Amino acid sequence: MSADESVIISKKEDGLIHTKQKGRYEVYKKLPDTAESLDSAFDYAKPFATFRLANVTTNQKGLPDFGISDEKKYGTAFGGILGLESAALYGVSLRLGTYVSQKVNWLNPNEALKQNRELFDANSESYIYMGEASLSYENSFVKLQAGRIRLETPYVNSDDIRMSPNSFEGLSTHLKLDEQLHAELYVLTRWAGVDSGDDVEQFKAFVNGGYGLSGAGLTYQFNDENEISLWYYNVDKESDIIYSEATGDVLIHKPFHIEWGLQGAYIMQCDGSEVEGVVVGGMTIIDFSALYFGLSYNYAFEKNSNTITDGFGGGPYYTSLDEQTLGAVSALAPGNDLGVYRVAVGTNIRVINRQNLNLEVVHGHFYLEESSAEAIETDLILNYTISERWHVESAYAHVDLKNIDYSITSNRELRDFQRLVTRLDYKF
Asked: Helix count (H) and strand count (E) of the chain?
């Protein structure tokens, strides 16, 4: 995400533990430059870009008893985001962003069965589309966005994990009620991106037959380190979601501090969707100088044949890993209560020119109360901020799925696998 974007996710610490484990989204605004006429609005327009080179390699274990061999798939792409944001004329500005993934042919396999589609479209081909195209109005009190936009809320977010992020069609409003109290309103009709399905570049309905989703959020910041928030989502034809979270940071003795969070979600199904349940969770991160340790836990209460949703993006749950999430594992055995814990350790090293090198080991274990099925994942993660504009990240995930009933044909894609995702970004 470019530093010139008008809505930016502020991360207090580096690494997966400090970001994905938290459900909160700290949003601040940067007013665009002002113009005196329509012509000067484009004279002062600013380009923004993320040029990205990415590789995904996946090894999936076979099932000899069912005639399925081990599979290795890989893919390499170059692309990212290229866009333009005009200066503001009477508070109104235009933002355009093109999302691109172009296959690097000599770094991709010729055999179709070895091609990894995760960086490409449904046919393993390159794609290009207008991911952002919006008009904004902004002053010191309100920001309105309409069109194709990016959002960062607990159940609707960009989740930029491959070549391009999720983006959404609709309207959003951010209100600064006072210095401590902020509100958000949103009505969305379609979305596109890595989490939306195989056709990454196609804007599609959230739920078939539904108008989309709408909702609101309210956040109260006690101070820079402590806040509480309440969110509501109506996902037409699927569910109503009420989500609340409190997070904070306690300074024990510099540089020793403890971060904490509590979350709860009440999900009610609509139109017999069988998406329903209650989720509770907590997390703590102990930071001491360059070292930190994280522990988080979620429990989902389900009944009948219901499942839990992650929403439309990476989800808000503290125990999300690089691959496995609460919603994905609950689908293994609908109607079963589900528990998961996650432990992690990391270090943030200052290297040449005081840039950050972040190394982490993350382990998570999902278990179902009335089913023998389990999901165990261990991640090794490297993040290196080479300079203000250059950044590289690499994440290795080892996923072990236990006691899956492979006599059910649809379960045969749920096999043990290892995945390595590496991305090199240049941003301006």
From this structure: 3, 23
